[in-house]
Amino acid sequence: MTELNLTKTSQLDTFAACTIVSKNYFSYALTLRSSFLKNNPGGDFYILIVDAKDPAFKADDGCNIVWVEDLDIPNFTSYAMRYDILELNTNVKPTFLLSLLKKYQKVTYIDPDIKVYRSLDIIFNRLSDYSIVLTPHIVSPMMDDMKPGEVDFLINGQFNLGFIGVSNTESAIKMLEWWQARCLEQGYNEPSQGIFVDQKWINLVPCIFSGVYIEKSFGCNMAYWNLHERMLGKNKEEWLVNKDEPLYFFHFSGLLLNDENDISKYQNRFNLIQRPDLKEIFSAYRQELRDNGHLNYQIIKYGFSTFDDGKLISSIARRLYTIEEYPVNSISPFSVGSKFYEFCQRNNLFSTPGGAKSYNTYNTNHNDVRLKIIRGGMKLAYRLLGVDKYPLLLKYMIYIASVRNQRNIFK
Length: 411
Hints:
Layout: E1 2-3, E2 13-21, H1 26-39, E3 44-49, E4 64-67, H2 76-82, H3 85-91, H4 93-100, E5 104-110, E6 114-116, H5 121-129, E7 132-134, H6 150-156, E8 163-167, H7 170-186, E9 189-190, E10 195-196, H8 205-208, E11 212-214, E12 220-223, E13 232-234, E14 239-241, E15 245-246, E16 249-251, H9 279-291, H10 294-297, E17 312-313, H11 315-323, H12 339-346, E18 350-351, H13 369-399
Parallel strand pairs: 1-4, 2-3, 2-5, 3-4, 7-11, 12-16
Antiparallel strand pairs: 5-8, 6-16, 7-8, 9-10, 13-14, 14-15, 17-18
Helix pairs in contact: 1-9, 4-7
């Protein structure tokens, strides 16, 4: 394992790719790294670890490792407290890309749950003529009512930021600096407020920056969200999409490792029984993750998940931290001696193991007694407010769906 200090050099190397993970996801990064280097000889690959720095953490010899604490993000601990694991992993992306452009002419960010199946010359060649390369979620209409649908892309972003390519140009640098500022200050996972981590911001990029190329090849960023328009096949040499386009990279987003028929936990359109064309790559990918130590890595605790005394930081606490005023150079917010720890203790804001179970539209039990109580409360509110004022309550509920807009509830 090689730890790197990415300082600016006068002679830029040609191209590199990178990914970002916390330690529990490291098997995904190793799988991606292997597939990229196999298909792109001459390129370099970097892994940014968004986790507490650990000298004892081991990886394969030759892995180019960068720790997030070494990116020189001012007052980094405040961001580590403000954002949860998903938000922090995504929000440091532009900062990491900027650091790599000090050394390379062309850089691609690739999500760790992607596997590369072919040379990415199609992307790096685009970056000879363009500053920024993006891949849209879909390039044809979705005609059913399954999930995800077109409305989901209006909510979460029209481009998938599991991939982005940038070249060392003035336009790309300006875009990354703008994106970095937006991510670090407003990179919340709050679709109800119009923002979704790093991804939603990129909707604006083709409008306000020059040199943007939208890569619509069916073989780039094939994933659960575009399977309605893409079928996988194979000739003697390689995988093909829709019989004639090479498969460049597949995005295994939302993979459930132990469900052999599942495609993604984020969709309900297909499974592998309905899509036998995908069975071989899914089976092989699951095995590669196991071979790369997933069972050992997945149990590693996220280093920014607790205060120094081991108490779990709740999602509500993180949001409230963003609206409290703490001196930039004050004691670490993770310290039991910090004012923020005292605030959490006073308001009973510590989380409990298993208390932050993920609920979403795919797994919510609508017969849950708690939901029935909430629905009863809404019926009562309608009767009290009447037909004209009830919509105002619903609009207000959208506003307070963000804990950042609920400061007066806590003391």
